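In response to the reviewer comment on reproducibility (Comment 2.3), we provide here a single inverse folding case reported in full, input and output, so that an independent group could reproduce the run without further information from us. The structure tokens appear first.
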């Protein structure tokens, strides 16, 4: 077990840099914080590089019997505040490797595909909803918010350790899905599309959710096997992307 007491320590400096996308990409690692996420890592036997915590926080950790002492770093309150991306840090963190496949074959299942979603809260909520509904996974386009963004990680609430989550080019993804027999259902704010409540539940599909402001891109729309929409009964112009996704996910669950 290592103990570090200075924010100027080289290891701490490198870990803090993981709050930035370019350093996450460069190092192939990302940072999570908070008891719930750390517990999810341990309960799901996810590989991690190191656990950092104050002495008090480490003592409160419920699942710690099988942690290799060499992976534990005890830090002080100053370092905890230095590493935290929240106002009220829980004083416990983990560094994990980024394990993204270069290629993936979508042979079967129910998937959500996010086309250029930029709000981290929306993305995390959609992933959490897909997990709760029993979907197999979520694919983020490369133009979407970074999966390892701290706000995305927090809003997923551990679902990232339950289902497959991949960030890869969306056209490559949808083409592979179509080749493997997964129908592509594209959500549109368009009354010429089919009403969601007229769509039967199917055993497998790719459900595409578009950008919060502009919807799905034209090249994605061209790949649709079915275009669907949620009827707006009141005077609201549209639904929040995460709410709309949640309605559709549970419709097809």
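Designed residues, in position order:
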């Amino acid at each position: 077990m290592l103990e570090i007491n200075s924010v100027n320590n080289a290891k701490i400096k490198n870990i803090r840099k993981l709050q930035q996308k370019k350093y996450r990409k460069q190092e192939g690692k990302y940072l999570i914080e908070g008891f719930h996420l750390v517990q999810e890592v341990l309960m799901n036997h996810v590989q991690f590089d190191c656990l950092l915590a104050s002495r008090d926080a480490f003592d409160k950790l419920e699942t710690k019997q099988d942690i290799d002492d060499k992976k534990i770093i005890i830090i002080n309150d100053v370092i905890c505040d230095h590493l935290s991306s929240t106002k009220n840090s829980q004083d416990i963190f983990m560094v994990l490797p980024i394990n993204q496949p270069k290629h993936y074959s979508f042979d079967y299942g129910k998937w959500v595909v996010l086309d250029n979603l930029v709000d981290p809260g929306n993305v995390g909520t959609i992933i959490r909803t897909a997990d709760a509904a029993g979907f197999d996974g979520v694919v983020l386009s490369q133009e979407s918010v970074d999966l390892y963004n701290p706000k995305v990680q927090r809003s997923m609430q551990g679902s990232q350790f339950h289902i497959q989550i991949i960030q890869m080019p969306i056209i490559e993804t949808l083409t592979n899905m179509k080749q493997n027999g997964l129908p592509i259902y594209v959500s549109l704010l368009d009354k010429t599309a089919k009403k969601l409540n007229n769509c039967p539940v199917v055993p497998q599909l790719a459900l595409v959710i578009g950008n919060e402001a502009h919807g799905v891109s034209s090249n994605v729309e061209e790949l649709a096997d079915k275009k669907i929409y949620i009827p707006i009964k009141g005077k609201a112009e549209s639904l929040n992307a995460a709410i709309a996704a949640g309605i559709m996910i549970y419709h097809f669950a």
